[in-house]
Please model this.
Amino acid sequence: MAGSPDQAATLTHATAAIISVGDELSLGQTINTNSRWLANRLTDSGIITAAHVTVPDDQPALSAAISRLTTAADLVLVTGGLGPTADDLTRPALAQAMEDPLVEDPLALSQVEAWFAAANRAMPEINKLQALRPSRATTLPNLNGTAPGLHARVGDADVFCLPGPPREMIPMFEAQVLPRLHPPKDRTVRTRVLHSIGLGESDLATRLGKLMDRGPQSGVLVGTTASGGIVSVRVRYEGPLPPIDADAQVERTLREVRTLAGPYIFGTDNDTLAGVVLNTLRERGERVGVVESCTGGLLSSLITEVPGSSMSYAGGLITYSNSLKQTLAGVDAALLGPAPEAPGAVSREVAVAMATGGLGRLQVDHCLAVTGIAGPGGAVPAQADRPAKPVGTVFIARCSRLFSQGKKTTDVRQFLMKGDRHSIQDWSAKTALAMLRLHLVGAEDLKLLRQVS
Ligand code: AMP
Ligand code: MG
Model:
């Protein structure tokens, strides 16, 4: 096919731009997972994503974005807007940017027809529109839906248009786009991530100090991102291929980060906190159980998200009410009240009683217990000789058997968690896991973020 992009001179794709199309994205109703996934994949391939742009279902806006970004980047990936309905405007927008008429592609039409035939459905007339392409573009087959993709050369950039649904976009990228990418041969990109819990992002950044300087000379960039109580340190090398050894540079920086951040670092790359804790327990042949009040099962859920958790997780008790704290976990009724001097359900004493009770009743080597005030109600005002318990007050206890001595060790801490009900619950569950991890690595002395005492 004369002038098809596959026959044009090969471009080097040093930089990319990603355009996400759809009112649902620009209005904030759908989370844009495509652009994140694509940028990650491009980074892995050695291509730098220089811009992310989200446009509504608007042909002039999309066409203008394609025109602008094809002058700024070597590769433009567009997702969405390839459907058959009136709000799917990626085909005409690409044609407009290329100043090229739309033509019907017989092969694409037969593929769309075959998709409907295989699904045993009659093809609606409007799906014929999906076989249109700018005359100088080629279509990309879609094995997971009706919308074919598009590949075109616009100016000095390669443009790929992919369907919006991730289950169609991802396989099309892997099969049709990736083999057509040409990252610079003289550059290499490596990204590694270390995950920490228990330090605030700025505390961690302070510890890392000069390592985070963005000097152009170093070649290794170190940055932090915080999400749901986990602060991740991203180490990225971007530079020439040998003589400089990218892997050695990255490994050296990872070691420096570990030294500066200490045992707050719990894992790398795809590790999760629960996964790391369970791995260690499995290696030691030990099992954990939980007794949960204010987290209502969230801690158990975090643990059982990990495949193979049954090898080191026995299960848990959700003791939301005082009576279940007594009957299931064996908490002494006198600790719970009603006497004014009783510590009450949200207290150091009850957290310890839940953990020690759970250790015996669940027949485990370690038991974690959480009791607190997730809010928005339930705050306890100060009383004569007792300080207030504001929303976010959470006590977490860990009780473990010490095999060598036939004894138990306990660690109990008071926290003042921040945020809404969900954040307080989420943070509490993760902090409980962090306490067990500190015990397993012998770093119980470490204070955790939000810890009061
Ligand atoms: P479209 O191809 O524009 O018809 O998109 C169809 C559906 O794909 C949308 O309704 C979304 O559910 C999903 N989708 C489109 N773009 C994205 C994106 N950037 N991230 C995640 N989902 C998307
Ligand atoms: Mg759409």
Residues 20-22, 24-25, 30, 32-35, 79-83, 88, 163-166 surround adenosine monophosphate (ligand 1) (CB under 6 Å). The chain has a mean pLDDT of 93.
